[in-house]
Specification:
- By secondary structure, this protein is mainly α.
- It folds into two domains: 2-153 and 191-204, Alpha Horseshoe (Serine Threonine Protein Phosphatase 5, Tetratricopeptide repeat), CATH 1.25.40; 209-379, Rhomboid-like fold (Up-down Bundle).
- The protein is built from 18 helices and no strands.
- The chain has helices at 2-19, 23-36, 41-54, 57-70, 76-88, 92-105, 110-122, 126-139, 160-163, 191-204, 209-226, 239-243, 250-271, 273-295, 301-319, 321-324, 326-348, 356-374.
- The longest helix has 23 residues, at 273-295.
- It is elongated, with a radius of gyration of 25 Å.
- Residues 242-370 form the Peptidase S54 rhomboid domain.
Length: 383
């Protein structure tokens, strides 16, 4: 347990050193962690990233190949390792595609965004490079990742008259006979594309946006229901969605909002906004349907949705229990504490209708299962 904590500490030190532009300190931290655990792909990837900034490209290649050996089926670390190898081979477009694939699976890796910014700047996409750099700085709490990447002159797009006759091709490495792929001509995004880029960038700056919207809708729905402005019509199937945002008592509303503020934000950050919305709505519907089956009526859909969020968080810890190491055990215990507290409080205020517990159990199990199904690909290695 202590060794796992030491490894996590060294890994965090290495990440922080890279973000602050100190690859030498990062290399030292990763080297210490490698002495404790030599078969961890995260450690070898960190060594590759640090030595890339130091200019030790031979070490980078060996470390990246070691990562791929440890992850033969592919994964997050293997994808970044291949991107670094492509960068050294001057296959910038291929490296950019690899980094984009990693970011699409886990958008919370600051180094991946910094590497993407570097590759975009090489290929002449300055606008997108600045967005990626800002995202990396936000995720690393102000890190600039200076001195972490080799100095490469930006590629100059070919002139229009020569573009059709002969594409731009990087020089061929005659030593190993491997030909380099051509670099497609980059064109600036049109007005609508630039608007979408700005919209995605603004969304990324508000990690709790969906949770804040759910909180606001729940407060408005409760006040409307409590004041008699909102009348529930269970004959309309759309009301099942509306009930997901309604609490039956002020105390229950406060407990659910408290849970959303702390746990909902975490789940939104771990799974992303769209997965978070699906988990919230689906868990609430599962609880309502089970409640109707056992009671013949409908309870607080908001409580069921919140329990589904708890289940999703537990599913995340279950999927990542190996990679989280010592931190995973503490996080899982915290999850059990929050979930148990909510179950006890809801049973205490159930007013004798303990059959609501079936809906709570169904929603938390449903949220866990949905989280496992919706988790990014590299998080589905359960065993």
């Amino acid at each position: 347990m202590e060794a796992q904590m030491d490894i996590q500490t060294y890994l965090e030190q290495g990440k922080q050193a890279l973000a602050q532009g100190s690859p030498r300190e990062a290399a030292i931290a990763y080297a210490h962690s490698a002495q404790l655990e030599s078969d961890n792909p995260m450690i070898h990837l960190g060594l590759a990233e640090a030595n890339l900034g130091l200019g030790s490209y031979g070490v980078v290649q060996m470390a990246c190949r070691r990562v791929q050996e440890l992850q033969p089926a592919g994964g997050q670390e293997s994808g970044l390792a291949q991107a670094l190898l492509d960068l050294l081979d001057r296959r910038f477009e291929r490296a950019l595609q690899g980094v984009d694939a990693v970011i699409s699976e886990d958008p919370g890796i600051a180094y991946a965004h910094a590497l993407r910014s570097h590759l975009l700047r090489i290929t002449g996409q300055t606008y997108d490079a600045n967005l990626a750099r800002a995202r990396a700085a936000r995720l690393s709490y102000g890190g600039r990742f200076e001195h972490c990447f080799p100095n490469v002159e930006p590629l100059t797009p070919p002139e229009p008259a020569k573009q059709l006759a002969q594409p731009t091709v990087l020089p061929t490495n005659t030593a190993n006979g491997a030909s380099r792929e051509s670099i497609p001509t980059w064109s600036r995004p049109n007005g609508m594309q630039r608007r979408m880029i700005r919209a995605r960038f603004m969304m990324s700056q508000m990690p709790g946006l969906v949770t804040n919207i759910i909180v606001a809708l729940s407060i408005i729905a409760f006040l409307a229901f409590y004041l008699g402005v909102l009348k529930i019509n269970i004959t309309n199937p759309l009301w099942y969605l509306g009930l997901i945002f309604i609490a039956v008592s002020p105390f229950q509303l406060i407990i659910n909002l408290f849970s959303l503020f702390f746990v909902g934000r975490a789940v939104e950050g771990l799974f992303g906004k769209w997965r978070y919305i699906v988990i919230y709505l689906a868990s609430g519907l599962i609880g309502l349907l089970v409640d109707q089956y056992f009671l013949g009526g409908l309870g607080s859909g908001m409580t069921y949705a919140v329990f589904g969020i708890f289940g999703a968080l537990g599913g995340f810890y279950f999927i990542n229990r190996k990679s989280l190491g010592g931190f995973g055990q503490g996080a899982f215990q915290q999850w059990l504490l929050f979930a148990g507290l909510n179950i006890v409080l809801n049973i205490a205020f159930a007013q004798g209708q303990l059959t609501h517990v079936y809906g709570l159990i169904a929603s938390i199990v449903g949220g866990l299962i949905i989280a496992v199904l919706l988790a990014p690909r590299q998080r589905r290695n359960l065993f």
